[in-house]
Design goal:
This protein has two domains: 74 residues, Arc Repressor Mutant, subunit A (Orthogonal Bundle), CATH 1.10.10.10; 135 residues, GntR ligand-binding domain-like (Four Helix Bundle (Hemerythrin (Met), subunit A)), CATH 1.20.120. The protein has 230 residues and is mainly α.
């Protein structure tokens, strides 16, 4: 039996509208065409279009007011976490600074969840880091290991919101991770982090784990900028 999910018409309409917004076809603060015209452009029925519009309005992309045209919100200013998750799925539509901004956010968050995870589950963190030290020296292996490590750290932290934020960037994280880890210097940098964090986890040194993570995340941002410049 084929259990593959098939996109519903409203989901197709939603994705087409998102692509049109992100590509600038429907710019920020512009009004969408009338319902009949827009449904024809997208190739869906008007009830299907209405469902898609309601979903996009709920997530902060559109403003729907009775008797007025539907407005494209300034999603960077008026959006929410649902908007951020979608932006991460369309990296080609973002400026090069988008990933920089996400890495800056990681600098703020990662020291906290790394420290908490070592305090709560030092043995589990150490066991995972031991596997990192013997993995294949390939971009794909490092990208997956780095993602899995941050998933573990956020899962073992006190604040569950850390994991929700990280989950929003799954596809982008792995995509950019493979670009980043193409460079041997980046793989060497992360290997040193895994080794040092392992030592702190074994000794249950939470403050040191947090400080190490902050420093490494700052250096990772600088390396990412260097990678992009190259």
């Amino acid at each position: 039996m084929d259990w593959q999910s098939v996109q519903k018409p409203a989901e197709i309409a939603e994705n087409r509208l998102l692509e049109a917004i992100l590509s600038g076809h429907f710019p920020v603060n512009s009004n969408l065409p009338g319902e009949r015209e827009l449904a024809g452009q997208i190739g869906v029925t008007r009830p299907t279009l209405r469902e898609a519009l309601q979903r996009l309005a709920r997530d902060g992309w559109l403003e729907i007011q009775h008797g007025r045209p539907t407005r494209v919100r300034d999603y960077w200013r008026e959006g929410n976490l649902a908007v951020l998750s979608v932006l991460a799925r369309y990296p080609a539509q973002q400026s090069p600074a988008f990933v920089d901004h996400l890495l800056e956010l990681r600098i703020l968050l990662a020291p906290s969840y790394a420290s908490q995870a070592v305090g709560n589950s030092a043995d589990e963190v150490a066991a995972f880091l031991e596997t990192c030290l013997s993995m294949d020296d390939t971009p794909a292996a490092f990208s997956r290991a780095d993602w899995d490590l941050h998933c573990l750290l956020t899962q073992q932290a006190d604040n569950p919101v850390f994991r929700l934020l990280l989950n929003a960037f799954h596809d982008l994280y792995l995509l950019m991770g493979e670009q980043y880890f193409t460079f041997a210097e980046c793989r060497k940098h992360s290997s040193a982090y895994y080794r040092d964090l392992l030592a702190y986890a074994r000794r249950r040194q939470t403050a040191q784990a947090g400080e190490l993570t902050r420093r490494i995340m700052e250096q990772s941002l600088e390396l990412w900028k260097k990678v992009q410049a190259a």
